[in-house]
Amino acid sequence: MSLRIDNIPYYNIYPTNIGFRSGGNTVAAVNAPTVPINTPYTPPDVVEISADKKIKEEGLSKGQKWAIGIGSAIATIAATAILFAKHQTGRLTKLYNEKMQLVNLGEKIDFKEAKTVEEGIKFAKEVLKVGDVDKNFTLDAINYANRGLTEVANANKGRLFIPKKLCYEEMEGNTVAYVIRTIDSPRFGELAINKKYFDKEFLKKQIKERLFDENGKQAYEVLDKNNIKTRIFAGIPIVPNKESFILINQFYKNPDSMNINDMRTLYYSFDSQWSELIGKFERFPLDTIKKHKNLFEKELNQKINIEELAKKTTKEQEEFLITMTKALGEKGSPIQFNLKLVPTEHIIYHEMGHLQDFAKNLKELDIKHWKLPSFKEAWNEAKNGKKHQNTTEIEFVDNRWGGLTYDGFQELFEKNPKKFKKQYPDLYEFLTNQETQQTAGKISGYAQTSIGEFIADTYAKMILGEKLPDDVMALYKKYNGPMVAA
Known about the structure:
This protein is α/β, with parallel strands linked by helices and about 475 residues long. It contains 19 helices and 15 strands. It has a four-stranded mixed β-sheet. Strands 11-12-13 form a three-stranded mixed β-sheet.
């Protein structure tokens, strides 16, 4: 299922062919994509030479006429490109000066939960220097947003790009939060929070769908911390860790006894962990097969040819992986996947990673990835005596922050890889380079879906103070990811 909310894509990554009822959509943060600009842009002061007029006046030979026709088309494209780039540079500089808010808040902010919404909004505006805040925030929600932003600010010793506005809105999907990165949009730089995550009844309903099976029975028969009947996914036991076990057990006993923050954490943890697991099957099954190759071969007495599997489609690799993991589970030596708790503030860190990334790289990429019609196209049309119709049409190629969880990207990647490579060259390289994918996978399955998500998830771990592997940091620096204060 795909849907759009104010140009924000939502992509349901749960597979439908392996007998698993997800009970809802993923809550992994989704950032707003740059909307391709399809409207032709005509730079000022472009004077197109009329080849026909010149030929008529000078009585040139056919060869000379042909050369002038082609030269005119190419000259027009060249002139358009130069003027366009000059115009865009000035326009973007003006937009950045107006919209990007680099602040210096001081090295350490002491966060205290507000006692009223008004107090929380005042903190966001006066202490965190957020330009504007929706007045319809609940107290729980404004404290959540302020706490997350404060933690990011402190990790950066107060110097960072801050959201232009904090929005509080109900989204049709289950995204926790997103930032808007379309620089031409009046909403560029806003951070939006989903109201649903601050509605206890909504959370209760969603958690119930995840903790009970289709027949209304407990999916996890929690007896004690050492004896848990786990849920099985494609032959893999999903085992709660100690912290998630406590919350699951509490929910089974009495959901109303849980505070909303614990409910929010449990719900978010389930969906983020499930999306992580399913990503290992649906998007990058070959990586998972490689990781467990020795175990499969030893326990199932079956030789696995990775080179041959690499030639198969992702769907075929997924089916092979599911068959192998189910067989392993039936044999009594399954792969185990631990269900751990993930604090929802992680999404604030992630989205702020996007915002810092946009601030650091978007200006360059806005210019770098604008493209004019191809030289070959213009040459052929001029050669055939046609005036090139698209000399002033500009196309934006968004190939850094889009990814496989964005509407249409995965379908194009799987069905027409040549077109995908042409349209999104650096993203294609990121997705198909096995070494790069292995490195991104050390961060998360979601980090493997695009350059932008790799940057945002890595940034979130940096905010948490985690020590990251050298190859992860090398890849992060390759993509010019934003650093936090030392």
